[in-house]
Design brief:
Number of domains: 4
Number of strands: 0
Oligomer: single chain
Helix content: 55-70%
Length: 452
């Protein structure tokens, strides 16, 4: 019979071989998640050495090449750590726990070990474990060993971990000593309500230690959002340029439509007209010049994206003006948020506001408004220009945009409050927003996509 050491040694080697064998099949998200999982099991010195200049803003092919070298190096590190921690036998308390074992244990299993040997837990590991408790949103997460890896899907985990890294060892141990009895109480809770309340207290305790004043549950962002959230200067243009080289003519045209949708009428005249005027129609622009057109738009407006008109309500990503950092937005009073949103609205023209409102009408749920694939698909849906035109005709046009701006301001306030409401109330609030747009524009609810 193989010993524990032999079994784990073989599993680590088999896992490495499996990842390398399938690495060409991994997409961008799978590649970045692979790095996150293993980097979460490295000590600080080794993280710096093995990660080097790695960034989640590298291209997919660049990340794939990095992973090909990173996995063997990580595997060697993990095997050395395993032998070192188990050289005196199979012991499963700090300091004899490997970093992979921390990652594999459920919260209820490892926290009694942590608090029982608090001085033996490395500060970086305490930061990781505390950050993960700050993401305990539901009772089942206490017993789920997959929770540790699941937490890595959220940029908020890394925010909490890095903020906690600014505390001294004594402060970290003090926070951990306060969290441990609450974890025990949550595990022992009989009623679901009691457990939920205890988890909320844990999250608030961790948030306070990290210098935040609200429940982390309110700051959860999208899955596998790049971290850090802000990319290096020029990364979008560089990344897009490489992607465009691989696109077919059909995909280039669709990509151009996506970027044209981000422009005001004046910007379209300034940026697009010089390209389009050289050919009888848009559909006769050659491949090379379509690429140049798309890059010219991105270089002019690098901080816009198709879904920002709605994402701004939950994360501060503005459509026309500089965005607000995720944490600043979450902590900002509603009055200040409204002021920033209205400044953003003031930079939009009739066509842009009407496009956004038409997207509401053509999207059945708030989730569809932040789904890039769904929003791109609308560009080839006949209903989208029809609704867009109806809104412009009813509320804007030559008579001026006062009525359109008034409706857009109303939708802005309603959307902000919808995204601040409990999740189970949002779909009904969203339905009311869509009906309000349809009513103001004189559009029958029966023609709306995704239900009335």
């Amino acid at each position: 019979m193989q010993s524990y050491l032999e079994l784990v040694h073989q599993r680590i080697e088999d896992r490495s071989a499996n990842v390398l064998q399938n690495i060409e099949k991994f997409d961008d998200v799978q590649l970045r998640f692979t790095v996150r999982i293993f980097a979460d099991c490295l000590d600080e010195e080794t993280r710096k050495r093995l990660l080097g200049n790695y960034s989640e803003y590298l291209t997919q092919s660049e990340i794939r090449e990095f992973v090909k070298g990173f996995i063997p190096a990580y595997t060697e590190y993990a095997l050395v750590e395993l032998v070192d921690k188990k050289r005196d036998g199979e012991r499963f308390d700090p300091p004899w726990l490997t970093q992979e074992e921390y990652q594999e244990m459920s919260v209820r299993e490892k926290w009694p070990r942590i608090v029982g040997n608090l001085n033996e837990v490395a500060p970086l590991q305490l930061c990781r474990e505390l950050a993960k408790t700050g993401l305990l949103l539901r009772p089942y997460m206490l017993s789920d060993p997959g929770f540790n890896e699941g937490a890595l899907e959220f940029a908020l985990y890394f925010d909490l971990r890095d903020r906690l890294g600014g505390l001294s060892e004594e402060e970290l141990r003090s926070v951990a000593a306060s969290v441990a009895p609450l974890v025990d109480r949550a595990v022992s809770a009989v009623a679901g309500e009691e457990c939920e309340e205890t988890l909320r207290r844990i999250r608030l305790l961790v948030a306070t230690a990290a210098g935040l004043s609200i429940d982390p549950q309110e700051m959860i962002g999208p899955l596998m959002e790049r971290y850090p959230r802000e990319g290096p200067p020029g990364w979008k243009v560089r990344e897009l340029g490489k992607t465009l080289e691989t696109m077919s003519l059909r995909d280039l045209r669709l990509t151009a439509f996506v970027h044209l949708d981000l422009l005001t009428a004046e910007e379209t005249r300034e940026i697009v007209s010089p390209f389009v005027s050289r050919w009888p129609s848009f559909f006769e622009i050659p491949t090379r010049y379509l690429r140049e057109l798309i890059l010219a738009i991105v270089e002019r407006i690098p901080d816009r994206a198709l879904t920002f008109f709605f994402e701004r309500y939950s994360g501060g990503r503005m459509t026309m003006t500089p965005g607000v950092s995720f944490f600043v937005w979450k902590l900002m009073p509603e009055e200040e948020k409204i002021e920033r949103l209205r400044e953003d609205n003031a930079r939009m023209d009739q066509a842009m506001m009407a496009r956004h409102l038409a997207r509401y009408l053509m999207s059945g749920t708030p989730e569809e408004l932040v789904d890039p694939g769904r929003q791109i698909a609308l560009l080839t849906d006949n209903g989208f220009p029809v609704n867009h035109g109806s809104i412009l005709k009813s509320l804007g046009g030559e008579a001026g945009d006062a009525r359109l701006r008034k409706l857009y301001d109303e939708v802005t306030l309603l959307s902000l409050r919808m995204m601040s409401a409990p999740e189970n109330e949002r779909h009904e609030l969203y339905r009311e927003i869509r009906l309000r747009i349809a009513e103001a524009a004189g559009i029958s609810p029966n023609t709306m996509r995704g239900g009335s």
